[in-house]
Amino acid sequence: MCACCLLLLLLLLLAWGPGAAGAPSAIIAQTLAPCYSADLQPASGRLISAVSCTVLLAVPPLNASAVVFWEYKNGPHEEIILKYYLNKPVNTAASYKNRTKFNETDFSLQMVLQRGDSGTYRFRTESQETDWFQLEVIEPLPAPEIVGNSSVKAGGSIKLVCNIPEGKADSYWWKKNGELLLGSDHFQFVRNNTLHIIEATMNDSGYYACVVRNKVSQNETSFLLRVQNAANMVLPVMMACVIVGSLIGVLVWCRRRGRFRHCVRRWRA
Ligand SMILES: *[C@@H]1O[C@H](CO)[C@@H](O)[C@H](O)[C@H]1NC(C)=O
Ligand SMILES: *[C@@H]1O[C@H](CO)[C@@H](O)[C@H](O)[C@H]1NC(C)=O
Ligand SMILES: *[C@@H]1O[C@H](CO)[C@@H](O)[C@H](O)[C@H]1NC(C)=O
Ligand SMILES: *[C@@H]1O[C@H](CO)[C@@H](O)[C@H](O)[C@H]1NC(C)=O
Ligand SMILES: *[C@@H]1O[C@H](CO)[C@@H](O)[C@H](O)[C@H]1NC(C)=O
Ligand SMILES: *[C@@H]1O[C@H](CO)[C@@H](O)[C@H](O)[C@H]1NC(C)=O
Predict the structure, then answer these.
(1) Which residue, by CA, sits nearest to atom 10 of ligand 4?
(2) Residue nearest to atom 12 of ligand 4 (CA)
(3) CA 174, CA 146: separation in Å to the nearest integer?
(4) Are 24-138 and 145-228 equal in CATH topology?
(5) What is the CATH number of domain 145-228?
């Protein structure tokens, strides 16, 4: 029973120990405004942010030290972002020089993000270091392109494909005249990025927008679809037939009555 208690105590200490030591060694990071894509909430351990936004990496108080470091690691690639001997000029690596700001009082680091900054970051003194902080840097999506026939006849099916010139969307959806389209027998979504409109009618004419989203952005493009009623073609043809038919009818009537010349003269007048 007591061995059990001891074991429990040991486990508790083990669980508590690194937890208590872990809390102050955690970096707190935050995307700074203005950044129209990423979440601005401070986070511990892991943060998702966007290219060209600025992140602030703040460190907990650590033991005093004559020199401190900010380090980057991504797989086998390791780099010292900066090295600072207290009260000496900050020594920043060339690839970070024009886009980082180091605060010599609280040792925080501000960085304008580039593609390729995804990876882990930590702060280190001579005797202590923080946990590695994981940063994921994602590019906002460009406006998608909609490929399809913009002027089609009623009755057939229509295919609109939404392509992203660069990057990858986590989700796609469609709107018609600003309203979300739901899947049905009439509107079918194929392979995430394709809208099929089955047996299109003139009612399907309108502005179709494809919306794309990833973890840091949402973008959209709209497309004007015109569905022409088949009757638009039939009506003029029918009218032409009726007119020609009645002309012939009048001519025949005139001829029967033997007043052909008279009729023609009256027409010319
Ligand atoms: C920093 O300089 C590099 C070229 O050395 C450039 O590509 C990058 O856009 C610059 N970053 C900022 C934030 O000015
Ligand atoms: C550095 O951090 C301190 C304490 O957080 C703050 O008072 C000061 O304004 C910061 N300095 C700069 C240049 O941001
Ligand atoms: C959509 O992408 C275009 C570039 O294709 C960009 O100029 C625009 O800012 C983006 N819009 C949003 C809301 O991200
Ligand atoms: C678009 O569809 C119409 C009929 O639905 C067809 O006549 C036309 O050739 C199509 N245009 C293209 C570029 O496919
Ligand atoms: C559609 O989504 C699935 C998973 O949801 C993904 O594997 C596939 O690549 C996506 N297709 C396109 C065209 O984006
Ligand atoms: C066409 O759309 C209107 C409203 O948008 C609706 O009232 C009407 O029933 C639709 N007609 C057909 C044939 O679907």
Answers:
(1) 149
(2) 149
(3) 11
(4) yes
(5) 2.60.40.10
According to DSSP, residue 52 is labeled T
Question: What Rg do the C-alpha atoms of the chain give, in angstroms?
Answer: 36
Contact 104 CB / ligand 2 (< 6 Å): no
25-40 residue pLDDT tens: 899 999 998 887 778 9
What φ, ψ does residue 250 adopt, rounded to 5°?
-65, -45
Q: Give, using CA atoms, the residue closest to atom 12 of ligand 2.
A: 103
Q: Domain boundaries in the chain?
A: 24-138, 145-228, 238-267
| Nearest residue by C-alpha to atom 14 in ligand 5 | 192
Ligand 6 center to residue 158 CA distance, Å? 18
Query: 24-138 domain in CATH 2.60.120.200?
Result: no
User: For 54-102, what is each residue's pLDDT tens digit?
Assistant: 999 999 888 888 999 999 999 999 999 999 999 899 999 999 999 999 9
Greater pLDDT, 148 or 65 = 148
Q: Which atom of ligand 2 is nearest to the CA of 106?
A: 2
DSSP structural state of residue 87: T
238-259 per-residue burial string, b: 16 or more CB within 10 A, e: under 16: eeeeeeeeeeeeeeeebeeeee
Segment 151-186, tens digit of pLDDT: 999 999 999 999 999 888 999 999 999 999 999 999
Neighbours of 78 (CB within 10 A): 11
pTM of the model: 0.67
Cβ of 206 closer than 6 Å to ligand 3, yes or no, is no
Centroid of ligand 4 to alpha carbon of 155 (angstroms)? 13
